[in-house]
Model the fold of this input.
Amino acid sequence: MVYSNSIGPQKVQLSERGVVVVAAGALVTPKILMESGIGPLKELHKINTHPGVQEDNLVQNENVGEHLFDTTLVIANFRHEQMDSF
Done:
């Protein structure tokens, strides 16, 4: 993994001992998962996965990258001069 901080980009190797939660938004999370070798096999074969991910380590999950939708937020402010007219 490469991450940036005030010093600059740094490479680190991470390992897990349990559950890993990836939370990078509706569009970036599937990208991270697929680049890590998790997702629909037909899509994994299309993209250039990380050289360290071997074919045997690919994890087929047809739901990665599917059923995405944007959440919209609308804020409306109204002003009424005569508040007791209802």
Observations:
- The longest strand covers residues 2-4.
- Helices lie at 25-35, 41-46.
- The beta strands are 2-4, 9-11, 38-39, 59-60.
- The chain has a mean pLDDT of 77.
